[in-house]
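This week, think about what follows.
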Amino acid sequence: MPMQVEREKMRATGVLDRTLTWLSLTCGGAALVFMTGFSVWNVLVMRKALNAPIVGAEDLLLLSLVVIVALSIPLGARTGAHIEIEVLESRMSARFAKWSMIFVKLLGFALLAIMSWRLWHAGQSAERFGETTQQLLISFEPFYYLLSFSVALYAAILLLDILHLVRSNEIVKLKVGSDPL
């Protein structure tokens, strides 16, 4: 029975990893292709050659960048891409290092949960307060929601890391590029 529970958790982690990888590569890749193509078209063709830049181009590029950042936050959490300073870990006992890591991850979870909640709240009030892009007046509301979901997913990944630490004393990170999608 315990072996089956462990397999279910590994399967859930695998589904999460595949979903994060697919979303980041497809949606993030599409946003990067859009940003690159649109920047080249706007700057080189419309602005330099035709002297008629696209109105609102900066707005679209800014919002595309927000999408890329939102998609990269949870994937970075699973791959270990976020910065961790481990200056004192080599001088700690294994048990103290494990529990200090759990404490830090719990603290991070609490901060990210608050951040997600506040981003969601900002999304709910964005239209009411007129939070829009400068030229095209695109509301920031859906982008606040996307960032809120992304940060909440990061918080859930921290809880998953804590569970892995408690059960096996290590966190298995996602290795992008080594596993087939």
Observations:
- The radius of gyration is 20 Å.
- The chain has one domain: 2-82+90-168.
